[in-house]
Specification:
five-stranded antiparallel sheet; 15% helix; alpha+beta; Jelly Rolls; six-stranded antiparallel sheet; 33% strand; single chain
C-alpha cells in the first residue's frame, strides 16, 4: 500500500466508523507510521557530523577558566576571568566577576551599558551616588541586571553570605569606570 493510499484510508470518514475492525485499524496506523519513515531509512547517505573546527568554535571548559584578583582591590574581595575581549579593549567583552562575601564597590559609573547575569550566589545591587549597603537589592542566581551608561551604582556581596556571587558581564568597551568620589577607596568592606 502506498503512503498516499494509507493517508487517504486514515483520513476517510468511513475509517473511523464503529463497524471497522480494531485490528485492521491498528495495522493501518502502524503501517502509516512505518511508511512515513521509509524516505529516511532508504537514504543512501549516512548522517555524519563534521569534526569541530577550533578556529571556528572556541570552547573553554570550566576548569580552564582562570580567575585573577582585581588589581588594587583588598585581598579576597573579588576576582575576574576575561572570556572575550577586555574592559579596556575597544569592542564587545564577556567577563566573569566573582564577589566574595563582605565586599562591595564604591559608587561608580561606566561609559557604556553593562548587561549582567548572576550565575551563582546572590549579588546585592543599588543605584545612586550615596553608598548605603542596607539599601541594596538581592539578585539571586539566574537574575539579570542592566546598568545604564553614566548612571552611578554600587554592588557586591553581604558579609553574611554563604558563598561568593559569580556574575557574567557583557558590554562594549572601553568601560571607563569612573568613581563618584575618587578621593575615597573604590572598594568597601561591609
Amino acid at each position: 500500500m502506498l503512503p498516499n493510499n494509507i493517508l487517504d484510508t486514515v483520513s476517510a470518514s468511513s475509517f473511523l466508523a464503529a463497524d471497522r475492525d480494531v485490528l485492521a485499524t491498528r495495522r493501518i496506523l502502524l503501517l502509516a507510521a512505518l511508511t512515513a519513515g521509509l524516505p529516511l531509512a532508504a537514504s543512501s547517505r549516512a548522517a555524519n557530523a563534521s569534526k569541530l573546527d577550533p578556529a571556528e568554535t572556541i570552547v573553554t571548559l570550566p576548569d580552564a577558566i582562570r580567575f585573577v584578583a582585581w588589581s588594587g582591590a583588598p585581598p579576597h574581595s573579588g576576582e575576574m576571568a576575561t572570556l572575550y575581549g577586555g574592559l579596556d579593549t575597544p569592542g564587545p567583552y564577556v567577563v566573569l566577576m566573582k564577589w566574595y562575601p563582605g565586599y562591595m564597590s564604591a559608587p561608580h559609573s561606566y561609559a557604556t551599558d553593562r548587561l549582567s547575569l548572576v550565575l551563582s550566589g546572590t549579588w546585592w545591587v543599588n543605584s545612586g551616588a550615596d553608598f548605603d549597603p542596607n539599601q541594596t537589592v538581592p539578585v539571586p542566581a539566574g537574575g539579570f541586571v542592566r546598568r545604564v551608561a553614566h548612571t552611578p551604582h554600587y554592588d557586591g556581596v553581604t558579609r553574611d553570605a554563604k558563598e561568593p556571587a559569580v556574575i557574567a558581564l557583557f558590554g562594549i568597551a572601553p568601560v571607563d569606570l569612573t568613581l563618584v568620589d575618587p578621593s575615597k577607596p573604590g572598594w568597601r568592606q561591609v
